[in-house]
Amino acid sequence: MKNPSIICMAVLLFIYTATTSSFAASLLDNPSFEEPISSGWKTYAVSAAQSSEYKQSGNFSAKVKSTTTNSGSKYLYQIVPVAPEKTYSFSGFALKKGEPATTVYLSISFYESIDGSGSQIDGKSYRSNELKQDSSEFALLETDIIKAPENAKTAKLRLTIQMPTGATQVGIAYFDELAFTEVSSPSPTSPQPIIPPTSQQVITSYPTLSEIFPNPTKGGKEWVELYNPNSSTVDLTGWKLVDAANHSKTLSGSVAAKSYKVFEYSSGWLNNGGDILSLVNPSGKLAEKYSFGSSERGEAFAKDATGKWRTTTTPTPGKPNKITGAGGFVGSSNSETAQNTTGTLSSTGLDPTADYLGDTFQFSDPNEQPISPTKSKVAGVNERKGGSSSLPTLLISVGIAFIGTAVAWPYLERRKIV
To answer: Residue 16: which region, alpha, beta or left (left: phi > 0; alpha: psi -120 to 50)?
Structure first.
């Protein structure tokens, strides 16, 4: 080591290049609201603060509340630089409270200015699917893949509460795990037109898991019940139920508004000793997941009137849920409770450690068409929320070790000479 200073400079340059490139994909500031809301976000006709009352994962979500009951759009927003003619997607989780008639959604608008000022290009705003029902569980909102106009320099990303005319309460929504990411163009060989909001192919409403019957009596069948909390029919084409072993069941048909639909399966699919049931949308993304423990024969897992998962000795396929017996466990207010119970645990509705926006599923059932098993990087969402990247930490540690060696080397050489 005749020239330790040169080695130190090389190591530092390597660390700088590696650490900066590892964070280059992150397009949103403070996407999970673990820092104060003012870090990256601004408000329009709303108040916003960190909240631990409801959260998708980590320690906090953003609680956004309209400042008045006046009709119109009120939102939390962030201005993000974009590249012209690149394609982007905006997604995140939301939970609605407050005024019953409010609508919650995400949106993207593009601007020619570098600070998001002036009029949005072509007067267009691209919306996600909408959340209209109050719930105690978060729902996934996501836009279609949008191509930035050729003159776009910035995008304004809005977390919107749409207040109706005649509202009597303020609107409240919780947001968490936002992600704004540049994605590959669907067809790199030909330009993609900018699709108006009225014709975007997005999923506009979601079903939810309502009741699970994994341990039937001898000769009986297992079944899973879905509920549609929306005001319109939901098409189930392409949706799947997936167990912990990645065996899937493809759904079909539709479920009417405010109604239930039951899917029966031969006994042996779900594990009586405990399993994980995932509801996966046609794009291969996780909409909801519930992990349950062992069950007694004839016992079901059902959501109660508050949306919490409980055990019940009275299964009700295709009907409002009834909680009887010593109900326990957790997570849509689509149920009726037959009696008060105690011993409720905290909700497990969605796994707080999972990176849902990046998750895709590869099914082991040979009769099923697999969804791409690749997992792409989602800007603004880490593998584990609140954790630090291990690569930059390792590189920095190596750099410090090299610097220490370089500083001490001349002294050690002199000692050897003496």
So the answer is: alpha
For residue 396, what are its two tokens? 């920095």
Asked if residues 11 and 400 have their Cβ atoms less than 8 Å apart, the reply is no
Backbone angles phi, psi at 18, to 5 degrees: -70, -45
Low-confidence ranges of the chain (pLDDT < 50): 1, 15-24, 187-204, 329-393
Pair 67, 47: CB distance under 8 Å: yes
User: pLDDT tens digits for 76-91?
Assistant: 999 999 999 999 989 9
Q: Say if strands 42-44 and 87-98 run parallel, antiparallel, or are unpaired.
A: unpaired
Cβ distance 47 to 76 under 8 Å?
Answer: no
pLDDT at 264: 93
What are the chain's domains?
4-22+398-417 (no CATH), 42-199 (2.60.120.260), 205-351 (2.60.40)
Residue appearing with tokens 């509801």: 279
Burial (Cβ within 10 Å: 0-12, 13-18, ≥19) of residue 387: exposed
Q: How far is CA 122 from CA 112, 119, 196, 351, in A?
A: 11, 8, 10, 40
Kindly provide the b/e burial profile for residues 348-378, where b requires at least 16 CB atoms within 10 angstroms of the residue's own CB: bbbbeebbbbbbbbebebeebeebeeeeeeb
Is this prediction's pTM over 0.70? no
Question: Could you give the CA distance from residue 348 to residue 301 in angstroms, rounded to a whole number?
Answer: 13
Q: Please report the pLDDT score of residue 407 as a whole number.
A: 66
Which helix (H) or strand (E) element contains residue 7? helix 4-22
Task: Report in angstroms the alpha-carbon separations of 108 from 73, 80, 119, 189, 401.
Answer: 14, 10, 13, 25, 45
Task: Quickly count helices (H) and strands (E) in the chain.
Answer: 2, 22
3-class DSSP state for residue 250?
strand
